[in-house]
Amino acid sequence: MYFINPLFLYALFAIAIPIAVHLFNFQRFKIFYFSDTRFIKNLKQRTQRQSQLKKLIILSLRIIAIIAIVFAFARPYIPLEKNKGQSKGIYHIVLYVDNSFSMEGISRRGTLLDEAKEKAKSISQAYSEEDRFMLITNDFSAKHQQFFSKEEIKKEIDAIQISAVSRPLDLVMNYALLHLSRQQTANQKVYIISDFQQSMSNFANIPKDENTYTYLIPLKANTINNVYIDTAWFETPIFQVEQANTLRLILKNSSKNEVEKLPVKLFVNNKQKAVASADIKANGTTEVKMNFTVFEKGLQHAHIEILDYPINFDDKLYFTFYIDDTYSVLSIYGEKENTFLNALFQNDSSINYHTINEHNIDYATLKNQDLIILDQAKEQSSGFISAIEDYVRQGGNLLIIPSVNKDIAMSNILNQRLNISRFESLDSQKTRFAALNLEHDIYNHIFEKIDANMDYPNVFYYYVLSKGIFHNKQTLIRLENNHDFLCVYPIEKGNVYLLATPLDNAYSEFQKHALFVPTIYNMAILANIQEKPYYTIGENFRIPLNKIEIQADNIIEITHPTTNFSFIPEIRNQMSGLSIFVHDQIKEANNYLIKDKENIIGGLSFNYNRKESEMVFYNKSNLEEHIKDNELTNYTVLNLQNKSTNAIISEIETTGTRLWQYFILLALAALLSEVLLLRLWKP
Q1: pTM for the predicted model, two decimal places
Q2: In this structure, which CATH number among 2.60.40.10, 3.40.50.620, 3.40.50.150, 3.40.50.300 belongs to the domain 227-323?
Q3: Is 512 helix (H, G, I), strand (E, B) or coil?
Q4: CATH architecture assigned to 327-528
Q5: Are 473 and 488 in contact (CB under 8 A)?
């Protein structure tokens, strides 16, 4: 048997009180002589023996009552087998304080983080001076990878701030057990103080450690309402100066209350460009469309914002997009230049258009092109094919136009190398366009819908494209006989467009039709689409630097445009091109610049993870159910609402059979027996 409050045992000296009372009140019998004392003597002796026995029984009952009361206050218990042996030696205790964004919720003691910090400090102060404490937050800070004294841990807890990083529960436990395993002691405990957000509490992956006992301390906010911006995307990836653009965004309401007329604002380069209002049902989702126009070329830093309290980390969403000054298009022709392509590009100031014969190619210039057109080119040397293949795989866009001379054997060498359809037989059956793929970026912003009676161009001759399994192949234009006229094949970071007919009036009317201009033109414009408008903080990702040349001695730097924040990211030159890795160096959601020395070469946007935005939590019963289902026998849930620190430690240390209530019953039984004895026993 063990005691939680052994100091109360000193109160056992109180049993001296009834003993002293008994001794001082002991009455000595006086002897009186009578003439005939035979019967009186027998009565006196019998009464004296009964009186002494009664007094001894009463004294025993009083002593038992005092002992029982003292033991009850000392909180005795019989520990479970798993807890035996933990009563001696110092403790090594890990305190995890959840400092994720959801801990900004308001409780009756301030924010949940404030309450968690107070709980952590009170737990640490309840232990002895010899015990050691380690602090864990979501930051996994290097300065916390050690054990502190009571006074030291208090200062570390006070310094905890809200963090953009969120860690799943299994990762936190693995981190804690790793550091506890390095300590030469059997007395190891872990306290998890959190709101136990469902998205971060993955009990199925929590490690089972028989030597460490973990206590879950759930906190609950007074209100768990949260409205947030979930995602945003552009209706079309093509941006041009002084042209209308449409931004779509998803708003979510993680609360039981409906939200009406929530203002939504769009800012581009710190200037408000659009405003909208949204109605969101309780626990619902809504989509908002915002139209805006940009009048400046180049890098555009933007963000959307709403107003919501108290959870506001997800009230802004930052993103970056580009409006290019010019697009580079190179036409590599076989026998002669294409008059239709020349007419399309040569008079456009936004297109840097060049033509070159297939025998005069400077391979070093290919990587600088947004679109390369192989117009009836027959050059199929190994150097040519390798250069074109590298260009495509590193993000280039290629349009292949077959030859008019029916000699396509050489062209198919490149097609086979790129793993796309080959040109097969020439079909002379007259047909026409039947359908356009309006979901593809080339067309989805041109037509809202197509009239069934639309005048499509005729096709007189076309090459049948071979069938096969081609990953992510998309048909852009389909003929009436279900053959493909124009297809696109994504290849790593680039795209290959395959046209089934030459741009010649004898073969089709496509080059003279209104569809020709947007089809070919958008191939060039779509070439400069950035991969992602924004990234998520805390995720390990690769950021490609497409078509950016960096000198060997130059240093790439990521900076904030209005603060002194800057760092040098990791740079890797991979097969897919130049890439940068930020790892965990960005902690704050915002727009950032990529600089090569003092030159701005790009922009990046980072946002906080929206996993923390869903205000759905586990309560005590939920946690106990998960513990039972996953057989986490060494895990215990503590309900610490309205409990003092002593109660906390009592709850923790008495993992076993508690005996104090039995001693209370024993004390009451002893006192009741004394009362009955005094009233009913008349010697």
Answers
A1: 0.71
A2: 2.60.40.10
A3: helix
A4: 3-Layer(aba) Sandwich (3.40)
A5: yes
pLDDT tens figures, 36-92: 555 555 555 556 666 777 778 888 888 888 888 888 888 776 765 544 544 456 889
The answer to whether 334 and 376 have CB atoms below 8 angstroms apart is yes
Instruction: Report phi then psi at 487, rounded to 5.
Output: -130, 160
Question: Which of 18, 100, 92, 94 has the alpha carbon at shortest distance from 59?
Answer: 18
Give a three-class secondary structure readout of 170-191: HHHHHHHHHHHCCCCCCCEEEE
Q: Where are the domains of the chain?
A: 2-80+661-680, 84-223+616-654, 227-323, 327-528, 535-607
Whole-angstrom distance, CA of residue 23 vs CA of residue 596 = 98
* Structure tokens belonging to residue 447: 């037509």
Instruction: Evaluate whether 125 touches 153 at the Cβ level (below 8 Å).
Output: no
- If one counts every other C-beta atom within 10 angstroms of the C-beta of residue 126, the result is 18
Do residues 512 and 455 make contact, with C-beta atoms less than 8 angstroms apart?
no
Whether 231 contacts 318, CB under 8 Å: no
Please tell me the distance from the alpha carbon of residue 260 to that of residue 460, in angstroms, as a whole number.
58
631 CB-side CA count, 13 A: 2
Closest CA to 483 of 433, 528, 443: 433
Please give the radius of gyration of the chain, using alpha carbons only, rounded to the nearest integer: 41
Do the bridges between strand 92-97 and strand 494-499 make them parallel or antiparallel, or are there none, so unpaired? Answer: unpaired
Taking 3-state DSSP, the helix, strand and coil percentages for the chain, each rounded to the nearest 5, stand at 30, 30, 40
